[in-house]
Design a protein that fits this description.
two-stranded antiparallel ribbon; ER_ret_rcpt; ER-Golgi transport; 212 residues; 71% helix
């Protein structure tokens, strides 16, 4: 494992922990898109079905279990534990417009036409756009809490680091995965505008605001 993948994993884990702590400590999920969290739970569930069929390493298995567990814990907090604080009026992105096309694409473009491989491919495609309901929600409300922007920053950083990881692996290992790379590029592009606002506003102590 190279340093870019490892730091990418840590950034991903940091994002998840930041979000969970934010919800738990404030006893509120205000400003958090439940739809994005459901999509992420679906991403991890379909991607890590290989937990049932193969063992790569203790690190690999532990991280997969943590991602799945935290994803469903977040969904539980939003839709059950702190449901009264969930802002469903602004979380209105039509997720079927993401899931259905992504599902179709996974059937058409994959490495191997087998159930596990199609589901893995589906998870890669879906992860690249799973943050859209959250970004859409921020655009509707016009602003985001600082802690929410930290969550989004580390989530975007994780994807950018993984993109560098794929480049590293191509140059030093000869490994090339077009599906993962293209999806990673798409996901990183979606974060670019947010990254700019994060650096120019949030890191300077200002509140992140977007045109509603």
């Amino acid at each position: 494992m190279n340093i870019f993948r490892f730091t990418g994993d840590l950034s991903h884990l940091a994002a998840i922990i930041i979000l969970l702590l934010k919800i738990w400590k404030t006893r509120s999920c205000a400003g958090i898109s439940g739809k994005s969290q459901i999509l992420f739970a679906l991403v991890f569930t379909t991607r890590y079905l290989d937990l049932l069929t193969s063992f790569i390493s203790l690190y690999n298995t532990t991280m997969k279990v943590i991602y799945i567990g935290c994803a469903y814990a977040t969904v539980y907090l939003i839709y059950t534990k702190f449901k009264a604080t969930y802002d469903g009026n602004h979380d209105t992105f039509r997720v079927e417009f993401l899931v259905v096309p992504v599902g179709g694409l996974a059937f058409l473009v994959n490495h191997d036409f087998s159930p596990l491989e199609i589901l893995w491919t589906f998870s890669i495609y879906l992860e690249s756009v799973a943050i859209l309901p959250q970004l859409f929600m921020i655009s509707k409300t016009g602003e985001a809490e600082t802690i929410t922007t930290h969550y989004l920053f580390f989530l975007g950083l994780y994807r950018a680091l993984y993109l560098i990881n794929w480049i590293w692996r191509f140059y030093f290992e000869g490994f090339f995965d077009m599906i993962a790379i293209v999806a990673g590029v798409v996901q990183t592009i979606l974060y670019c505008d947010f990254f700019y606002l994060y650096v120019t506003k949030v890191l300077k102590g200002k509140k992140l605001s977007l045109p509603a």
